[in-house]
Amino acid sequence: MLRFGEIFEEVLHTNVPLAENVIRYFLDKRGKQLRPVLTLLSAKIVAGEVRQQSIYGAVAVELLHNASLMHDDVVDESAERRGRATINNVWGNKVAVLTGDFFLAKCLLCSNLIGSLEVSKELGLMVTALSEGELEQLSNAQNHLFDEEAYYRVIKGKTASLFAACLRIGARSVGASSEEIQKMHEIGEKIGMIFQIRDDIFDYYPQTEEVGKPTGHDIMEGKVTLPLLYAFQHAPEDLNARMRSLLINNNIGLAQNEVETLVEFAKEMGGIEYAQKKMLQLSNEAKEILVSFPESEARETLLNVIDYFVSRNS
Length: 314
Known about the structure:
Blueprint: H1 2-11, H2 17-28, H3 34-47, H4 52-75, E1 80-81, E2 84-85, H5 87-91, H6 93-114, H7 117-142, H8 148-172, H9 178-202, H10 217-220, H11 226-234, H12 237-248, H13 256-268, H14 271-290, H15 297-311
Antiparallel strand pairs: 1-2
Helix pairs in contact: 1-4, 3-4, 3-8, 3-15, 4-6, 4-8, 6-7, 7-8, 8-9, 9-14, 9-15, 11-13, 11-14, 14-15
């Protein structure tokens, strides 16, 4: 990870003062870097070592992830991320989009250093899946599609595809077999789904400095996530109809008291407990695949990462 950090900084070097200021600001409060960690763990689990290509792969996925965050903040009109003002809030949408483009271009250049067309293809497929997942979620919200399978399709695209690609790229960087790459894909997809379900659960509780999004933020945008979907599926018919009508018949946006009503409805109907059970199921499935790899410190670390994804508070 130290070497990853050095290369990440080198790749982002620029002689444009504005770009340098924005990049420094963004990186001053970077996240947990889970995606590069997963990429490097995958390589070490498969081959017992991390190669230079593995580190370039980790840098590429982190650059792409950060580019998507900048663009998401513009699309969502977000004022804050990780407890501080977003780039679009400080410098405006133009600078935020262009900085995101800069990160994306650096990702493509970094992928060339790996020397693998397959890894470049992985990155292209990842961006496609991310975009399609976000677009499908928007479509589902506009069409009031309250369907659990549609929800899983969305989170596989917009979130799990990135985690799956991290583990595939790590495996490819050390010459993994097709069977090993497929196993890593399945592990990554499952833990990516856990990550997003956990993120969605945060929407039903008061905002904290760690989480950084207000209660009911997703519901306010018409995004119906797993806890509320479960409530719709299991509520008595008359209550179900009343709750659905809040979303379907409101063209000017939900009032705060309506959001709170839906949040409490999801909790009372057992939606949170159901979402937690789903995370545990996915966790067990991912671990079952993971333990088919030889025992190692890296394998144990990834098992612990899966547990962290289920229980994380931020």
